[in-house]
Amino acid sequence: MIRIAVSSLLIVSLASCGILKPRSQAPVAFANNIVVAHRGAFKQNKLPENSIAALKQAIALKCTGSEFDVRMTSDDSLIINHDPHYKKLPIEETTYADLIRHPLSNGEKLPTLREYLLAGMENNPATRLVCEIKPSEVSKERGQRIAAKAVALVHELRARERVVYISFDYDILKKIVALEPGVPTQYLNGDRSPEQLKADGITGADYHYSVFKKYPEWITAAKKLGIALNAWTVNDAETMEWLMANEFEFITTNEPELLLELMPKTLTRNGWKLVWSDEFNYQGLPDTSKWGYHPGAHGGGNDELQYYTANDTMNAVVSNGVLRIIASKENRENKSYTSSKLQTRNKAAFTYGRFEVRAKLPAGRGTWPAIWMLGTNIDSISWPACGEIDIMEHVGYEKDSIYGTIHSEAYNHIKGTQKSKAIYTADPYTRFHVYAIEWTPEKIDFIMDGVVYNQIRNEHLTVREWPFDAPFFLILNLAIGGGWGGRKGVDDAIFPATMEVDWVRVFQAR
Ligand code: MG
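Above: the input record for the complex with magnesium ion. Below: its predicted structure, written as tokens.
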């Protein structure tokens, strides 16, 4: 520590005398995006990982960060390489001179940390240098020495403002914090809570995305504590969307181009905030803090044939990141089928917002799955005065149609005046689709996979037409038979029939 302090003082004093001229530093304003190119933007351009060419590409893309891995040769040179071996040579047992006999696949010399940092400071107005210090395989002490040498070099090159240090080794990060208090540091190994990171002066949690699925409370805690959130290594749009919904500050990816394309379109970058969700990243019965049941043989008004159970994993169960609502051919209470109807009634209600549900539908004649909402005042003023918003309805005998509908006192299916439209889809049973509404005081848009296929406008008449300025709760259910679903009978060969729900997200305007 003392050694670093002295050498940095020396640089500062020499610089102020004009003897040693550090390159002039244009002020750095990091790109207003969340994209960290993992080992540089290598993949799409078929560049070697961790090459200066890949770094330059990340800078050209204006990624907010470009990540790279630091290791040390047997003769104490810091070089950039991910694996402990380079061209089959063990880096820690090979001299720098021996390593650089072998160029990277694009002809580039194996870069030193000095060369890499200098390249990363050249014509780079916006990209952080995300410096991963790999622990030594020789000794813990050597790992600490690698960290100290890297920090000293960053200091010497006056690159401090641009660098974020990351490591799987907690003690390496603690060493860096001790050497450079206040420098951004992110821990990679996923086994420390945000509270622990905060206590140790580490400023970010850069964990594998599965860690955040397992401990979603860490996302909330990190935000509360001002711990930066980063996730690695996220290469698919679906996971990127989930992290963006949760407003991660960074996403580390091999596909920076994809993330840069998705980011401006995502809801949280367009005035929406995630206010309620269930990602179904747990096992067993649905989360009782979010969902209740509506057990019984109701649905009688529609002549439905199912009995809805409660707390029964045969009919509603969460596993592998997905909620399954399962209808079975099973006699219960004079009904021939069991199924489940989950609702947020008395647990969560919303007025306006963007409601999105990613689901895969059950196939077969007689099924009637629905994702829908009812006014919380249904008990006092009853249906249809309370209002109903059907985000998604589907009947199994009509294979390719998804319906979005509203019902109110003035417009409902008893009178045949409900406002409904369908969108056609080829594969609701084999692929997940996002069924959504965007509900404001002026309109409700019905949306499938981002396509608005029905729009109900507020005519500004009375609550008989538009009861939609009040709180509504969410419902997920799978009915069997009934006035609509059972119009062509029920095919008993289809059971068990399952609706899968990957997630439910509710966004509201900021
Ligand atoms: Mg790395």
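Notes for the reader.
The CA atoms of residues 277 and 290 lie 9 Å apart.
DSSP finds twelve helices and 28 strands in the chain.
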